[in-house]
Amino acid sequence: MRKLVIAAGAAVVAAAGLTLPLAGSASAATTLKDDFNGDGYRDLAIGTPDANTVTVTFGSASGVSPSRAVTVTQNTAGVPGVTEQEDEFGENVTSGDVNYDGYADLIVGAPGERVTGNTTGSVTVLWGGPKPFTQGAKVFNSPTTGTERFGEAASFVDIDGDGAANLAVISSDGWWFYAENADPTRAIAPEVDFLPEGVRLEGMEAATFLSKDGYTYVLYGERADGKPYTVYMKGGVGDIGYYSGVLAEGDDARATRDAAAAGDVNGDGYTDLVTGNAATGSVTVRYGAQGSFGATKTYTQDSAGVPGAAEPEDRFGAAVTAGDLDHDGYADVAVGAPGESVGTVTGTGSVTVLKGGTGGLGSGRAYHQDTAGVAGVPETGDHFGSSVRFKDINKNSRADLAIGANSEDIGPWPDAGAVWVLRGAVPYVTTSYATSFHGSEFGSLTDASVAFGTTLR
Hints:
Blueprint: E1 44-48, E2 53-57, E3 69-72, E4 92-96, E5 105-114, E6 120-126, E7 137-141, E8 153-157, E9 166-170, E10 175-178, E11 187-188, E12 200-207, E13 216-222, E14 228-234, E15 244-249, E16 259-263, E17 272-277, E18 282-286, E19 296-300, E20 319-323, E21 332-337, E22 350-354, E23 364-367, E24 384-391, E25 400-405, E26 418-423, E27 430-438, E28 455-456
Antiparallel strand pairs: 1-2, 1-28, 2-3, 4-5, 5-6, 6-7, 8-9, 9-10, 10-11, 12-13, 13-14, 14-15, 16-17, 17-18, 18-19, 20-21, 21-22, 22-23, 24-25, 25-26, 26-27
């Protein structure tokens, strides 16, 4: 075991004493749904549900650093609730301007939160602002007494096409949305229950898949028999839940219970759906089109242009993300394979970046801890690539790639977890100026085995 090499100059900070950069004006933040302090840069949120924390690293022209970050928990002043081991606060994270004040708000799921009776789960919205997450928060609890794991996933997009976004939340067995206003309160169920008995939902992706200006929700999880299940539901005015259908399920490699992402891979103006299936070691692109999904194409490590070779233990597709890393107008895709072996080191993990283009995904390049410029060395069971996220953090119009290794050993602590950020470049991401950090650098976290970097947003 060893301690991950950290970029020189990174400061250890405590959330309580952090001085945050101020925004120039509230209106500057409205164009970015993940700019929590309104400074014009996108911010990276890191969920660590084993520690019940979310760490936000604030973007800047030089990227992200522990010296510009804050960690929040349910014990943070102004945040409702109390941290309990089983809460899973940070299991999922999303963002958006929920209270319409011009600043992005942090939306955190805690599906293990015990509320009343047998009901579990909550979603907490922490208000952004010039000094984000110090202005209080609002909690949304499970809307019914029979609901389990409310807050398994959340999104914030405009479901009904009226120009205002809605908070939508899933539990293990249901989907709800909230009417748009500065203080949403009542959860609204779909008019048509489109989910079969026994399905357990685990994730959600919402984007303009089937219309260039209307949103469609993709939900995924598993059936009662444990096999993957992937379904879609169209938004619109009224009849929510009526227009829906199963995309794939069971032994179909195009189904997922692991990961989904959205991006215009072929540049036709429609957002495409990217899903990963770790069990089959595959990634599927479903092309967006007017009214219904178009053609699909599935890739494995045996596909032309994809580095490596398909092996059952690789778990290629366990994590996926989409973003334009080189500013060419096509979304590129990064795929995590946390079980990948590097040389003779098993389970150390890797991430493959596949380039988008008119013909879909093309050739790729693999990154791991044996790649020059990537801090650390491959060790058994690191699971580099357990989470991935594309976003332009330094505002140069190229998506940077954040990578989690939730089983990275830090000093004497196994499975403490770590995160790397590689900058977008031409033609792939570059390891020059790469940043890496782990939980103990953020003041309120320790080096305990908490799987830092489980969630990236």
